[in-house]
Amino acid sequence: MLGEGILKGMAETARNFFGSYVSKERLTTVEYPEERVPTAENARVFPFLVYDGAEWEAGMRCVACQICEKECPPKCILIDKSKDKKPDYAGKPQFYPTRFDIDISVCMSCQICVEVCPFEAIKMDTQFELATDDRFAGLLLDRKELAKSNEYYHTIHPTEATEVDSRLAEEKAKVEAKAKAAAEAAAAKAAAAPNPAPPADKPPAGGGD
Asked: How many structural domains comprise the chain?
């Protein structure tokens, strides 16, 4: 039939048009902020720092290696390294950042900091509602503001966070196994070492009869 394709196209357009008023699946307008579209898992906005456990400062994964600071294209990351060390997730003493700032007014969400971090310490957030009336201090986030728990990381990026946890658990198991093997070798070496001979009895002091 001549024009059948045109009629089918017009019917589909009409169905979508009138359906948008009655069908929730066809609604094109979201009444923000009362209604919100779920954020996609692979969405990224600005970086945040991951910490393990309940205490953000004690559980922070960052060891202040400063690779992200050096690799950041817009140079929006500022890090000061500590003078002392604290145990990391594997129990190994590591440095930690006494200062970790990100200027999100400069950050371009390129994710390079995430890709170069060898400790899975920095990840991309999905939070975009960061408007402030202070264009300087309000957009300069310090380490406490950047710190978010591993549970939060699992909430926004569940697939990625599960893979990271599995990888970190394997690394921790290797470190623990290596330490255990070294301790067992040291104990075996100590057990195999001959016991020192007791000192010979000395003759009594003094002359003869």
From this structure: 1
Residue 53 falls within a domain, yes or no? no
Structure confidence by residue, pLDDT tens digits, 74-131: 999 999 999 999 887 767 889 999 999 999 999 999 999 999 999 999 999 999 888 8
In a domain, 207, yes or no: no
This model's pTM is above 0.70: yes
Identify the bridge partners of residue 93 per DSSP, sorted by sequence position: 87
For the domain that residue 74 is a member of, what is the CATH number? 3.30.70.3270
Determine the Cα–Cα distance for residues 82 and 88; give it in Å rounded to an integer: 14
- Asked if the structure places residue 84 within a domain, the reply is yes
**Is residue 111 in some structural domain?**
yes
Instruction: Name residues whose C-beta falls within 8 Å of residue 64's C-beta, 6 or more positions apart in sequence.
Output: 79, 80, 81, 82, 95, 96, 97, 98, 100
Q: Which of 148, 128, 162 is closest to 49 using CA atoms?
A: 148
From the list 142, 161, 143, the residue with the least C-alpha distance to 151 is 161
Question: Coil, strand, or helix at residue 93?
Answer: strand
